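hiii, so i know i said id send this last week but things got crazy w the move. better late than never?? heres the sequnce for the chain we talked about at the cafe, plus the structure i predicted for it. fair warning i was half asleep when i ran it
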Amino acid sequence: MPQTSNSETTKSFTHQILSFAWKGRDLDPQPYPVLQIRRLDNGEQTKIKLEPGFEFNWKLSKKRYCPGFIDFTKGNQELCPFMNELESGDMCAYCTKRTGFHSAFFYGDEPNAQMKEYLTQPHYIYLAYFQPNIIKVGTAADRKRYIRLIEQDALVAMYIATATGFEIQNLEHAISGQLGFTEVVKSKQKYTYFNQRPNVENAAQQLRSAHQHIYNHFQDTAFADWLLKNTEIIDQTQNPYIYYPASEQKLHRIYEDRLLTGKFLGLRHKYLLLAHNEQTIVLNKRYLEGRYFIASEEALTYELPKPTQPSLFD
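okay and structure toks below
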């Protein structure tokens, strides 16, 4: 397991970026974006609510370091005891194993203790609308019912079934396998339509139609008791923290840079949008999460590439 490089020590930096995420347990108040950081000298964690205009002017470490594992029963981020370097992914092999989510939920391995507790809790099946006219089926734990949707940039959605985490994936796979609803909408697809606010009436109509189709198909099966006959449309298109770039707005994608500078505009799916020198900067939050940083006393600036149309993005 790789360890922290001696060539880049914590003496050069003061903090670590742990995550860019959404917080809030329900729609009142609506979910809002949060930056979570930790001090390197004492491990103290701080959550910063990202209001529009929050200004970054940070120098970043060359490498990323594991931000730690998730305690799903508490929703806490526990620090990686080894601070392992990351070449890919969200966390190191040790913290991935400690979390236990992927192995239990996606690969069917025996859950560890925290995942057993987590998977006995209520989970939900949701249907989400994505442009143009795509209906996705997915799952969310009870404590993340509304957060999960906005994390996925699913701004119009509905919940249609509930069961334990051990059971809920069976229904999700049955819905996608038997009725053809997708379980994945690619980031490129979501990004292409960031500047368009969904038509809620059209989205709601398609969701209700899909829900009725699913309910009719499964009401006489072993899944019947999990189905919700009456459900509501969850509309987050008016959330003031959702940033819609103007249609004529040119977006500059920063792929690799050891800077994080600009004023916060919004967090959409995995993309952080910033205003910088009258330009709009887009960064993948995974590139940032795990890096060490220090606030610069001098104004930092990007050497911007030529503007790229959203449809060309990964």
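btw The chain has a mean pLDDT of 89. thought thatd interest u
miss u guys!!
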